[in-house]
Amino acid sequence: xxxxxxxxxxxxxxxxxxxxxxxxxxxxxxxxxxxxxxxxxxxxxxxxxxxxxxxxxxxxxxxxxxxxxxxxxxxxxxxxxxxxxxxxxxxxxxxxxxxxxxxxxxxxxxxxxxxxxxxxxxxxxxxxxxxxxxxxxxxxxxxxxxxxxxxxxxxxxxxxxxxxxxxxxxxxxxxxxxxxxxxxxxxxxxxxxxxxxxxxxxxxxxxxxxxxxxxxxxxxxxxxxxxxxxxxxxxxxxxxxxxxxxxxxxxxxxxxxxxxxxxxxxxxxxxxxxxxxxxxxxxxxxxxxxxxxxxxxxxxxxxxxxxxxxxxxxxxxxxxxxxxxxxxxxxxxxxxxxxxxxxxxxxxxxxxxxxxxxxxxxxxxxxxxxxxxxxxxxxxx
Length: 381
Known about the structure:
45% of the residues lie in helices and 22% in strands. The chain is an alpha+beta fold. Helix 6 (222-239) packs parallel to helix 7 (259-275).
């Protein structure tokens, strides 16, 4: 310790009074400090120039000579602390043989201003938080009202649309009509079928968003689900002259699933594949069991030879109201709900769903569901 500096430093050496006492050598290096300084400053910098301890607010670094030039008035300096939070002190520098003594006291005025600023920001944050909670509550209420309205409207529309479909089909099957009239009725039937599919999607979406999706699990064969889906898919494929190939030879035996809902997923993926295919192209549906980390899973793949899907569209494809990016080849309408509903159904089974595609080289939509699962854990997603 510098003898000349000792009386000043010794006064504060063991004190935790909020005063920084630092001894500086002729090169402005910090050689010693009191207990308070050791408590709040990064001691790994001891022995380095005092200017290295400063938080520089300008691009040009302050020199030691500039620092000591004004010793008559206090210098307001911000120092890096051990907590990495800068603190501001008012410093006086007193010359002593072989160096200086630096005394730094907290800048009370700045601390008061900082405290007032923090309190103001805290009040503003509290107000914003209350407004956010209120807005979230209002949005939740509006969402519930929307789901209720959507469900009621879709439910009320289902019966008349079903009646239109049934009577138009009856007339097509039983009445003796000319080619022009049959064409008009066929167009009406296709439009009503689109409307029914739209209504069904809205009903499913309302159920899902209300967290009311329930699985009716039973022991079923995956091959039976595929067979039932093919009955509905073949007429669509025939109308578009698309070849439909199905293979469930490696799907294995019974597994616990909601057959109706997985058939809905399969119809959506395969129906989309057909609708995005040109005449003469092929859609292949393959179901097989595959090993996984624990047990087995059923994997379904639907391959098509259509236009494919680009990366930007794939990123949001399974979100509600998303579009594939390529148009359906027959001009069929798309709501953007089918894949979102399919994802929720697959996830409710504990499975995964995705797509692999390169633009111009078709697409492969796939989903997996575990073969072994605890039904009590999957009935309520």
